[in-house]
Amino acid sequence: MGENLRKYNEVFMNIFGAAESELNESFTFESVHKWDSLAHMALISRLEDIFDVMFETEDVLHYGSYLNGIKILERYGVDMKA
Amino acid sequence: MYLGLEARPRDRAAVIDDQGLSISFGELCSFMSEMKNFARSGAVVFCLCENSAGAIAGYLSFMDNGTVPLLLSAAIDRTQLAVLKQTYTPPYMWLPERCLGEFPECRAVFRRYGYVLAETGHRFYPVNKDLAMLLCTSGSTGSPKLVRHKLTNLETSARYVSEFFGACEDDRPMADLPMYYTMGLSVINSYLYRGATVVASSKSLMSPEFWDFYDSQDITVFTGVPYSYEILRRLRFTAKEWPHLKILTQGGGKLKEKIYLEFAEYAQRTGKKFIATYGQTECSARMAYLPPEYAVSKQGSIGKAIPGGELSIIDDKRDFIEGPGEGEMCYCGPNVTMGYAENRKELLKGDEWYGFRHTGDIARRDEDGFYFITGRKSRFLKLFGVRVGLDDCEKIIYSKLGADCACAGDDREMRIYVTRPDLSEAIVSLLSDTTGILRTSFRVVVIDRLPRSGAGKILYSQLPV
Question: Which site from A67, B76, B202, B286 is most exposed, i.e. has the minimal number of CB atoms within 10 Å?
Fold first, then answer.
């Protein structure tokens, strides 16, 4: 696993108290009970700090899932394989 | 009728919600009269609220009818709900139809607007004749401590708040804060009082659905707690003009300076009003506000008392301090509630506070008479605007994990001091699960021993930061 993906996973584990094995395609806004607006705020802030990016409003609102987040970050130039 | 609702134009919309329901003032008044046939006056009714037309219409009927609602979140933790039900044995519940199946003991007697009035099988018991409404002091730690409101608390509060907001019939306030939260309820009451149309949504501010709805409703007033404004900032709210919006108002704790200034300056630039307010559940929400013309020059101040109220500060000897100074802030006004209840019997109690309240907050008053909150006497934090009792948390940890601990912190994070390093993870999970507050708001600090006085009391001042 690359360094960036490890950092990304750590943010999720920290905020949601999730195990790394739970972080997959089914980890979504709808399915994770704890993913409320507070958690979402914390998630976005943390990711912006760690990866030094600024998300567009649309991306904040439609972040939606663990996997989609990876795609969004890649669009902002973060190499998730590095 | 409650809030003078019968005096409003009958065909004007009173409440619109994000599920497509719209209720006019006329229809609302008929509904409120109809409800009298089903809910007994003087009985306690648990309302499981979402911000919807059904929840609001039910609440208003109960207020009008003398049935005593306890407003709770429809999403309240079911263990906490069970404790409350056991403590207060409500004869009725008003709940979303979809939740009815969860309560097999309940018998539906009346349905409307996606809500249902159910009899619980609990027997009617008497409460104080002045008791009109109940709210939880802390939605988070599941403490069954309630605040007892009388009708005049809510009606005078609605009148004064609508006065300083300049609320009018043409307003369309966004009811985004939960209605079981005192300030959320205050938005609903104070705008309905002036015949405005309340626009209600339970959707998260972080969801596209919320903003689609918001965009379609020509909202004139937005009310938020500090974290609402953090979200707005992140969503670049101030990059848009929002031509209908007249007022941005904030309460529930202090905004970070940077965010405060961004919104105060945005309001100034776009000809809107930015109004910081201060309030407590114990005083039917708002107690002080900062007039928008001072938003920048008195930044960080909660302003002065609302019309009809009076603020003061007292010293350690409980003497009033005149002129500039610092001390515990007290409030006097018709919106001060009757007191607390911790069990069913205490619902019989009358007014114990007589319109005067020690806020538990320490404030500084400047030479112009503006108040600034500088600290807190009481042992609670406000994490994301949610009040969390520190002693409650210590008890929860002790009862669930059997560990002595000391809880302290500020409104950014709670620190839990323990001597056992193996419990860190369990404590964070326990508190986050019980309170529903984000895990990252809790930080466990492992220390060698808890500092205690000779009498065994924890010495919070000696805890490391």
Answer: A67
